[in-house]
Q: What sequence folds into this?
C-alpha cells in the first residue's frame, strides 16, 4: 500500500481492474457464466476478508467462520419464504442476527485460546449446522430454494447479473476499506498487539478481551452480509454452507492469498476458485502429452494436486501468494 | 466424462460468433458420478448412451452432444452444475437427476430459463403439484406412487401394523407419507435418518423391534440399501419381522445384497423381464454392451432419449419451437420400456406398478422378476395442485 | 427398560469406535502437539485395505490383520514424508496442511479403488443376534466390536503404563524437551507413535467396515466427533478419551432414539423426526462447548500441560 509503483501494487491493481471490467467483457461476448462464477468468487472473497480480520490480524483461528455465511443466508431464505421480500428488511436483519450470534459465540469462545479456540469455534459452527438440518419447515437437510431475490424497489435489481455483480464488488471493496481503516487505527494496533503478546497488551492497560470481542463481532457481521449476498446469488440456501469443510475453505483462501495482508484473501479466493476450475483442464493437458488416452480421465483427479499444494504453501510459502510477490519484489 | 467448465475454453468459446443455425442437439445430463452412489449415475449414463445408439446417435436427424455433470449427490453442487449447463453450455435439454433434493435446488434455474427438462428419476411431490412446469417432464414417477403401491400390496397380504424407516430428505419423507396413504393398518412409528451420512441404523432397528409391528417398510436407495439389509439381518430381524421395500433392492444393489434380499418384495413401475419388444431389446443390448443388468434408473433414462427424440422429430429439428415440442411430449408418443403410458397434466406418468421378487437361479445368480401387477394406471395424488394449463 | 438397555448398548458400541479413533488422535495431539485432520483418512484407508485383503485372502481375520499392518506402514510413511515437517509449527499450519492431505487421500483412494466404494462381508455366522440379557437381543458382530475394542484399550493401557515405550510416551506428553534432552531418539519415537495412532484408526475403520459402506470421505464426519471426544476427555489423556467416547456415543444414540418421541409431544411427526437426530448431534457439541468454557483442559487433563 505504501510505494505507489511496485510489483504487488501493480498485481493488485491488475486483479481489481479485471474484476471491474468483467461485466463489460461478459456483455460483449454474451458469456454470462463467467460473471456467475466471478460473482461467487467476489462474495467468498468478502467472507475471506472478514475472516482475515480476526485470523490474520488478530491471530484468532476461527474454524467455524462459514457459520455466518449460513446465518446471513438463512435469514434471507426464511424471510423470503415467509413472504418478506424487501431487502431493506432482509439485509439489516441478516446483519443484526449475525452480529448478535457473533457476540454470543465470541464471548464464550474468546475465553479459550490456541487449539481450544479452533475447536470451540468448530463446535459452535457444527451446532448451527445441525440446527439448520433440524429446521423441517425450511427444508431441513435439503435446503431452501429462494424463489425471489431480495427486492430493493427501483434502487437495484438483483436479478440483473451485471447489477448484482457490481453490488457484490462494491461490498467487497467496502469490506476491504473497512478492514484497512480498522487495522490502521488505534483499535487495530491493540488487536495486532494482542496477537503477538496478549499479556503485555493487557498489562499496558488495554482490555484486550473486549477489543478482540468487538473484532470478532465485526468479522462475523461482515461475513453474515456476505451470506445474504451468497443466498441471493445461488437462489438457494442449505446447511451444507455451514459444514466444517466450508470453514476450512475460507481458511485456505486466507492463507493461500496471504494472512494479515489486506488484499491477500481476495487473491486467495480468486486463486483457489480459479484453480478449482482450471486445474482439471491443466492436468488433462499435461496428461495428454504423456498418455493421450488418459487425458480426460486425469482431469477428474485434480484434487490430488490441490491437496499437496496446500501442504507446500504451509511449508514453504507462509506468506501465501502475497508473501511470494513481496519476496520477488525484494529480489 | 467431459469435465465441467473449462475456464480457458469459456473465454475462447465466447469469442466465437453465436451459431446462426442449430447444428446439434445439446443435452446437459446431471447425475451422481462420484461417491458410493456413482453406480446409479453410471447406470443412467450407460442407458442414455444406449438409447442414443439405438436412435443412430441422431435426434430428429440432428447429431447429439451430451455433456455429463456430476452433482456429487449435493443439492448446492447440482444447482451450480445446472446453472453452468444452462448459462455456459446453453443446452437445449437437461436430463437426469437422481435425488429429489438436488432437483428441487436446481429447478428454479431450469424453469426461469425455460430449458426443456426430462427428469429421469427424482419425483418430489412439489414438481407434481404446486411447482409443476410446462417444460418439465418426468419419465419416472412421483415419489408417493411406488410406496402407495407397496401399501396396497401390504393390505392384500393382510399386514395389520407397520413400522416405517427412511432417510431424512425430500424423497424419504414422500415415501413414508406415500405408504401411509394407502396402507389400511396401523403405522406404529416412523424414523427418519440423516441422509446420506448416517449408515448405522442400530438405534432405528432397535426401535422397530421394540414396537413389535407385523412388518417393516423401508426406503434406502443405493449403497444404503445394502447396509440396511445387512444390519437388519445382523439384528436377527430377518425371519422375525417381514420387510417390505421401495427402491431398496435393484439390479445395482442385488449383487451385494445377495441372499439377504431373498424373500423381500418391492414395488416398481419397471422390471427387467417385462415382456414388451422395446424392453427385451433394451435389456439384451445393455447386457451385451456393459456386461451387467440395467436397473430401473437406466430404464427410465433410456426412455428419456426416446421422448426427446419424439419432440425433436415433431418440430423437424427447430428447437426454438418449445411449445410444439411440449405438446408432442405430452402425448408420450414413443415406445417405452415399461409399456405404453400416458402423461397426467402435471407431466408425471400414469402407469402400472408391479410386484417384484428376488430369485436365485441354479448357478447362484440373483435376479429380479415380476410376480404380479399391484395396480394399473396409477396416477399421483398431487396432480390437483398443479395449476398448469 | 429392555429397550433402553438395547439402545445403551448401541451407544456404547459407537463410543468404542470413537475411542479407537480418539486414542490415536489424542496421543498424536498430546505428544507431538499436532492437529491431524487427516486422521480420518487413515480410518478410511484401514477400511479399504481390509475390504481388499479380505477379498484376496477370502478370510475376514486375515484381511483385518493385513490391513492393520498396511495402515501402520502408511501412517509411518506419512509421518516421515509430511507430518514431521509440521511439528513445532502453528496450529493453523497443521489445520491447513492436513486439510490438504484429506483431499489427497480421498482422490488417491478414488484413483486406486474407484468411486463406487466397497463392501466387506461378514461370515454368515456373524449375521445374527444373541440374547445378552433375558429379552434383549443384540447383534453378535456389534458385541465383537465392543469386546475387541475393550481388549485393544487394555493393551494400550498396558503399553502406556507398564512399558518403557509407554514411559517415554507419557514423558513426551507432559514434557517434550525433557525427553529429547535425555538423549532419546525422539524422531523414531514420534514415527512410532504416529504409526500406532494410524493403526488404531485403521482398526476402527476395518471394524466398522462390515456395518457401514467402505466409501470415500467416510472418515470426515466421524473425525470431528473424535476431536470432540479428545477435547472433552482432555488432550493427551487416553483415559479421558475412553470415558468421553462412551459419553458421546451414548448421547448421540440415546438422543437419536428418544428425542423424536419427546419432540412429538409438541411438534408434528415429520418435524420431530427431522429435529430429533439434529438435536442429539447438537447436544454433543453443546457439551463440548460447555466443557471448553468451564473446564478448558478437559475432564481429565494431563499433568504438566
A:
Amino acid at each position: 500500500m505504501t510505494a505507489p509503483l511496485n510489483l504487488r501494487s501493480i498485481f493488485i491493481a491488475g486483479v481489481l481492474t479485471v474484476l471491474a471490467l468483467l461485466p463489460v467483457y461478459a456483455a460483449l461476448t454474451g458469456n454470462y457464466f463467467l460473471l456467475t462464477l466471478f460473482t461467487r468468487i467476489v462474495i467468498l472473497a468478502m467472507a475471506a476478508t472478514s475472516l482475515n480480520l480476526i485470523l490474520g490480524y488478530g491471530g484468532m483461528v476461527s474454524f467455524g467462520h462459514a457459520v455466518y455465511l449460513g446465518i446471513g443466508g438463512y435469514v434471507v431464505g426464511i424471510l423470503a419464504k415467509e413472504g418478506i421480500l424487501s431487502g431493506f428488511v432482509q439485509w439489516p436483519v441478516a446483519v443484526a442476527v449475525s452480529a448478535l450470534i457473533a457476540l454470543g459465540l465470541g464471548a464464550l469462545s474468546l475465553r479459550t485460546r490456541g487449539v481450544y479456540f479452533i475447536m470451540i469455534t468448530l463446535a459452535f459452527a457444527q451446532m448451527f449446522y445441525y440446527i439448520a438440518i433440524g429446521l423441517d419447515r425450511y427444508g431441513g437437510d435439503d435446503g431452501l430454494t429462494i424463489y425471489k431475490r431480495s427486492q430493493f424497489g427501483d434502487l437495484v435489481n438483483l436479478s440483473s447479473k451485471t447489477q448484482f455483480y457490481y453490488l457484490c464488488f462494491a461490498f467487497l471493496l467496502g469490506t476491504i476499506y473497512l478492514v484497512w481503516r480498522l487495522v490502521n487505527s488505534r483499535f487495530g494496533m491493540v488487536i495486532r498487539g494482542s496477537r503477538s503478546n496478549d499479556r503485555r497488551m493487557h498489562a499496558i492497560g488495554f482490555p484486550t478481551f473486549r477489543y478482540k470481542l468487538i473484532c470478532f463481532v465485526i468479522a462475523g457481521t461482515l461475513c453474515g452480509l456476505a451470506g445474504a449476498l451468497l443466498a441471493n446469488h445461488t437462489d438457494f440456501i442449505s446447511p451444507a454452507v455451514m459444514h466444517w469443510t466450508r470453514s476450512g475453505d475460507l481458511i485456505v483462501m486466507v492463507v493461500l492469498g496471504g494472512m494479515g495482508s489486506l488484499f491477500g484473501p481476495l487473491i486467495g479466493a480468486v486463486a483457489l476458485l480459479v484453480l478449482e476450475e482450471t486445474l482439471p483442464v491443466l492436468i488433462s493437458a499435461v496428461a495428454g502429452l504423456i498418455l493421450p488416452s488418459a487425458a480426460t480421465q486425469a482431469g477428474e483427479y485434480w484434487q490430488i494436486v490441490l491437496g499437496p499444494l496446500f501442504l507446500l504453501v504451509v511449508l514453504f510459502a507462509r506468506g501465501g501468494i502475497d508473501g511470494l510477490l513481496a519476496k520477488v519484489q525484494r529480489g | 466424462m467431459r469435465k465441467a467448465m473449462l475456464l480457458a475454453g469459456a473465454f475462447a468459446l465466447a469469442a466465437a460468433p453465436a451459431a446462426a443455425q442449430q447444428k446439434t442437439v445439446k443435452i446437459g445430463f446431471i447425475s451422481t458420478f462420484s461417491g458410493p452412489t456413482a453406480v446409479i449415475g453410471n447406470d443412467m449414463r450407460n442407458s442414455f448412451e444406449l438409447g442414443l445408439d439405438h436412435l443412430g446417435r441422431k435426434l430428429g436427424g440432428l447429431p447429439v452432444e451430451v455433456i455429463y455433470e456430476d452433482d456429487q449427490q449435493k443439492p448446492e453442487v447440482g444447482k451450480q452444475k445446472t446453472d453452468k449447463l444452462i448459462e455456459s453450455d446453453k443446452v437445449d435439454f437437461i436430463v437426469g437427476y437422481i435425488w429429489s433434493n438436488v432437483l428441487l435446488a436446481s429447478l428454479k434455474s431450469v424453469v426461469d430459463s425455460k430449458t426443456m427438462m426430462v427428469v429421469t428419476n427424482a419425483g418430489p411431490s412439489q414438481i407434481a403439484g404446486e411447482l409443476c412446469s410446462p417444460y418439465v417432464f418426468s419419465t419416472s414417477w412421483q415419489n408417493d406412487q411406488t410406496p402407495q403401491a407397496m401399501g396396497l400390496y401390504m393390505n392384500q397380504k393382510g399386514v395389520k401394523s407397520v413400522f416405517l424407516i427412511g432417510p431424512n430428505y425430500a424423497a424419504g419423507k414422500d415415501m413414508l407419507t406415500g405408504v401411509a396413504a394407502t396402507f389400511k393398518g396401523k403405522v406404529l412409528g416412523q424414523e427418519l435418518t440423516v441422509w446420506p451420512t448416517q449408515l448405522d441404523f442400530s438405534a432405528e432397528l432397535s426401535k422397530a423391534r421394540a414396537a413389535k409391528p407385523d412388518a417393516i417398510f423401508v426406503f434406502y436407495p443405493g449403497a444404503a440399501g445394502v447396509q440396511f439389509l445387512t444390519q437388519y439381518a445382523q439384528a436377527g430381524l430377518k425371519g422375525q419381522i417381514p420387510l417390505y421395500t421401495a427402491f431398496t433392492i435393484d439390479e445395482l444393489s442385488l449383487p451385494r445384497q445377495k441372499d439377504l434380499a431373498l424373500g423381500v418384495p418391492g414395488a416398481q413401475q419397471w422390471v427387467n423381464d417385462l415382456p414388451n419388444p422395446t424392453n427385451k431389446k433394451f435389456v439384451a443390448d445393455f447386457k451385451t454392451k456393459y456386461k451387467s443388468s440395467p436397473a430401473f434408473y437406466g430404464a427410465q433414462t433410456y426412455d428419456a432419449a426416446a421422448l426427446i427424440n419424439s419432440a425433436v422429430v415433431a418440430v423437424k429439428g427447430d428447437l426454438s419451437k418449445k411449445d410444439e415440442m411440449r405438446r408432442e411430449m405430452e402425448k408420450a408418443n414413443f415406445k417405452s420400456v415399461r409399456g405404453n403410458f400416458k402423461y397426467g397434466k402435471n407431466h408425471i406418468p400414469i402407469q402400472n406398478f408391479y410386484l417384484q421378487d428376488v430369485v436365485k437361479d441354479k448357478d447362484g445368480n440373483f435376479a429380479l422378476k415380476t410376480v404380479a401387477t399391484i395396480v394399473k394406471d396409477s396416477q399421483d395424488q398431487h396432480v390437483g395442485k398443479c395449476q398448469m394449463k | 427398560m429392555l429397550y433402553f438397555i438395547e439402545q445403551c448398548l448401541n451407544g456404547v458400541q459407537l463410543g468404542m469406535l470413537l475411542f479407537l479413533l480418539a486414542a490415536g488422535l489424542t496421543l498424536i495431539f498430546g505428544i507431538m502437539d499436532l492437529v491431524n485432520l487427516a486422521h480420518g483418512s487413515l480410518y478410511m484407508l484401514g477400511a479399504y485395505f481390509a475390504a481388499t485383503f479380505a477379498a484376496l485372502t477370502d478370510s475376514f481375520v486375515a484381511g483385518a490383520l493385513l490391513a492393520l499392518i498396511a495402515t501402520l506402514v502408511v501412517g509411518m510413511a506419512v509421518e516421515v514424508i509430511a507430518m514431521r515437517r509440521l511439528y513445532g509449527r502453528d496450529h493453523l499450519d497443521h489445520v491447513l496442511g492436513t486439510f490438504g492431505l484429506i483431499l489427497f487421500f480421498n482422490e488417491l483412494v478414488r484413483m486406486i479403488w474407484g468411486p463406487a466404494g466397497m463392501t466387506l462381508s461378514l461370515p454368515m455366522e456373524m449375521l445374527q443376534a444373541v440374547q445378552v440379557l433375558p429379552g434383549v437381543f443384540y447383534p453378535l458382530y456389534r458385541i465383537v466390536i465392543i469386546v475387541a475394542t475393550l481388549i485393544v484399550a487394555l493393551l494400550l493401557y498396558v503399553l502406556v503404563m507398564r512399558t518403557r515405550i509407554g514411559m517415554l510416551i507419557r514423558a513426551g506428553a507432559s514434557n517434550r524437551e525433557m525427553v529429547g534432552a535425555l538423549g532419546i531418539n525422539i524422531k523414531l519415537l514420534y514415527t512410532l507413535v504416529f504409526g500406532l495412532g494410524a493403526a488404531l484408526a485403521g482398526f476402527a475403520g476395518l471394524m466398522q467396515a462390515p456395518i457401514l459402506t467402505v466409501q470415500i470421505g467416510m472418515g470426515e464426519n466421524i473425525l470431528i466427533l473424535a476431536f470432540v471426544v479428545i477435547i472433552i476427555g482432555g488432550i493427551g489423556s487416553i483415559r479421558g478419551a475412553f470415558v468421553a467416547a462412551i459419553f458421546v456415543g451414548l448421547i448421540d444414540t440415546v438422543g437419536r432414539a428418544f428425542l423424536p418421541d419427546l419432540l412429538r409431544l409438541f411438534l408434528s411427526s415429520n418435524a420431530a423426526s427431522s429435529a430429533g437426530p439434529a438435536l442429539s448431534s447438537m447436544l454433543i457439541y453443546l457439551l463440548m462447548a460447555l466443557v471448553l468454557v468451564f473446564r478448558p483442559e478437559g475432564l481429565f487433563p494431563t499433568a504438566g500441560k
Observations:
- The radius of gyration of chain B is 21 Å.
- Chain B touches chain A through 36 residues (CB under 8 Å).
- The longest strand of chain B covers residues 366-378.
